[in-house]
Specification:
Blueprint (H helix, E strand, L loop, with lengths): L1 H8 L22 H10 L6 H12 L4 E4 L2 H10 L5 E5 L4 H9 L3 E5 L10 H6 L5 E6 L8 H10 L3 E5 L7 E2 L2 E2 L6 E5 L12 E5 L9 H4 L11 H13 L2 H17 L16 H4 L4 H12 L1 H19 L4 E3 L13 E5 L4 H10 L22 H9 L1 E3 L7 H17 L2
Parallel strand pairs: 2-3, 2-4, 4-5, 5-8
Antiparallel strand pairs: 1-9, 6-7, 8-9, 10-11, 11-12
């Protein structure tokens, strides 16, 4: 979000957002009360075997393994596969790139589809050749045509990994996303639907590529099992900070002020990206207990998310708001609702939204390939430049979603 908001605020000298109630871009699924109840429930024993069994039933595979994070799960899978090259979308999260590089693989980028946020079978087909691994994403929970991509991979001797980090619980033709490829990777990190601080899940859907037991016996890096006490405290604080009345009056003004300051480039700590908690901290029984609780109400979560998606879709039909959803999407499985404005630039839209007391989310503004190669990926550049993400979470009310949709339509119409 740094790039988009620094660009949007560049013509201004002061924060244009009024200090009032503001809908945050995201809120955690578990409440502070749930964190406390989970701590007490965790005294009853290790919940990881029970969670593993629940995931085996939901995903239809007997090979389920936990990882410190989704990025660590990707790196571990890649480290166990002999293929030297990974084909992945250029419009993607930079931690995925870091995971692939940490596993010692060479990256072959493909563009995303026109007017979309995913690489489809058309893009993967052009890069299909033996000795490659397809890393298939469903960005923001928006599904790609994963069945066709997997067929192409099999026909060309490629291995497939389905990055389902953004779409836990999403379905496609009655089947969970993350179960179509040879391997599936899921995330329970804070940005995701079932937020448990950090953590990943590996589903081995095709055990012929290597012995699944290697996941447990050959970890990517040395790990330790430690209660995520700092993460719990941070999540409690985040739940308080994202109360809309507090968020708009205290948190957001400080965040906007930071965009006016010079950006500080990220520098990995000693040992590189694999030395942080996302690689070295095992998935803890407390996290398993927390995920089990959310998994038990996943149907209710999906129902509410689908209701919010319907509000957005119905409101934006026939307006200057472009929606990036295929006809066969699973509304209840979306993580965010991706849009762009056909009548104005994103920077203009973000400034207009701030003036109305609306803070909109953006992600992956800079595609992953080197700047000198970006001309080869015009749709990824377009997606990084134009995409805005509307919130979808269970504490977002129908009333607030309806109000937000109306405001977005007015912003689009202002320059029409």
């Amino acid at each position: 979000m740094n790039i988009a908001y620094r660009e949007a605020l560049q013509p201004l000298r002061t924060n244009p957002c009024p200090k009032r109630r503001v809908i945050p871009p995201n809120r955690l699924e578990p409440s502070n009360w749930e964190f406390a109840v989970t701590a007490v429930a965790s005294l009853g024993g290790d919940a990881r075997p029970k969670l593993k069994q629940a995931l085996q039933q939901r995903l239809g595979t007997g090979h389920i393994y936990f990882a410190p994070s989704a990025r660590c799960a990707i790196a571990q899978l890649l480290s166990l596969l002999p293929q030297p090259e990974v084909v992945m979308p250029a419009f993607n999260c930079d931690v995925v790139k870091s995971a692939v590089e940490a596993a010692g693989k060479r990256i072959v980028y493909v563009d995303v589809a026109k007017d979309g946020v995913n690489a489809t079978s058309a893009e993967f087909r052009a890069a299909a050749q033996p000795g490659r691994i397809f890393l298939i994403t469903h960005q923001f929970g928006v599904p790609t045509d994963v069945e066709t991509i997997c067929e192409i991979a099999r026909a060309h001797g490629c291995v497939t990994i389905e990055d389902a980090a953004c779409c836990f619980g999403a379905m496609r033709n009655g089947r969970p996303l993350g179960t179509f490829a040879d391997f599936g990777v899921f995330s329970v990190e804070n940005w995701k639907r079932l937020a448990a601080f950090r953590g990943g899940v590996i589903a081995i859907n095709n055990p012929t590529h290597f012995d699944p037991a290697l996941i447990a016996t050959k970890p990517f890096v040395t790990t330790t099992l430690t209660l995520p006490s700092r993460e719990i405290a941070a999540a409690v604080g985040r739940n308080i900070a994202t109360i809309p009345s507090l968020y708009g009056r205290v948190v957001l003004p400080k965040l906007i002020e930071s965009y006016f300051r010079r950006a500080t480039p990220f520098v990995p700590g000693p040992g590189g990206v694999t030395q942080g908690a996302a690689f070295t901290r095992e998935f803890h029984p407390y996290q398993a207990r927390l995920v089990l609780g959310m998994l038990g109400r996943l149907d209710r979560i999906r129902t509410h998310i689908a209701q919010l998606v319907a509000i957005y879709q119905n409101a934006f039909s026939g307006t200057g708001v472009t929606v990036f959803l295929p006809a066969d999407h699973d509304a209840g499985g979306l993580l965010r609702f991706p849009i762009s404005f056909s009548t104005r630039t994103r920077a203009e839209a973000l400034r207009a939204a701030l003036k109305r007391g609306i803070y909109l989310e953006t992600e992956f503004e800079q595609p992953l390939p080197d700047a000198s190669a970006l001309s080869q990926f015009p749709q990824s550049v377009r997606a990084g430049r134009d995409t805005i993400l509307l919130p979808l979470y269970t504490s977002l009310s129908v009333k607030d979603a309806t109000w937000l949709a109306g405001q977005i339509i007015e912003i689009a119409a202002e320059s029409a």
